[in-house]
Design a protein that fits this description.
The protein has 170 residues and is mainly α. 52% of the residues lie in helices and 4% in strands.
Length: 170
């Protein structure tokens, strides 16, 4: 969707026309550089057996020349120029796009929650886990659901089995 501010801005139109002209000029340069042309035959064959074959054939049977370095360099320079020009055009076309959000941190993050005594914390955690695994307590008193110690639960499960699961051999 076109921005009405940019369509009436003469500097934007000049930059767009200049970018189009540069793109057209680069396209013309690349087209001239890579359009196939007649190549001169090499003076020496690349392979020893090619000399005999070259006497019988009017065309060489090997690559007559290597790529010239300037078309490859022109591609690299053209791509770099295109990237730089497109960045400049975008910065001029959208001047408010870069500083649109303040980059400064506006709030202080909370400090790290460090353990001041890790051994004591681990001892306390293990004691709570042991108490939870090895004691009786109500889960839901209204429904009559009670937590039993893990050892007793394992023995009960081994004796009765899991409902819907085949029993093991005894």
């Amino acid at each position: 969707m076109a921005d009405p501010h940019h369509s009436k801005n003469p500097s934007y139109l000049r930059i767009a026309c200049a970018a189009t002209a540069v793109g057209g000029a680069l396209s013309l340069i690349f087209w001239k550089a890579f359009w196939p042309r007649g190549r001169r035959p090499a003076t020496e064959p690349a392979v020893a057996e090619a000399a005999e074959h070259q006497q019988h054939e009017s065309r060489p049977a090997f690559e007559p020349t290597d790529w010239a370095l300037w078309p490859v360099a022109a591609v690299y320079v053209g791509v770099a120029a295109l990237l730089i020009i497109s960045c400049v055009v975008l910065m001029v076309a959208y001047p408010n796009a870069v500083p649109d959000v303040p980059r400064k941190l506006s709030i202080d993050p909370p400090g790290p929650r460090l353990e001041t005594d890790p051994r004591s914390d681990l001892r306390q955690f293990r004691a709570e886990e042991e108490k939870r695994l090895n004691t009786y307590y109500w889960i839901n008193k209204q429904k009559g659901i009670v937590h039993i110690p893990i050892e007793q639960a394992i023995k009960k499960l081994a004796a009765t089995g899991v409902p819907g699961f085949p029993k093991g051999q005894q």
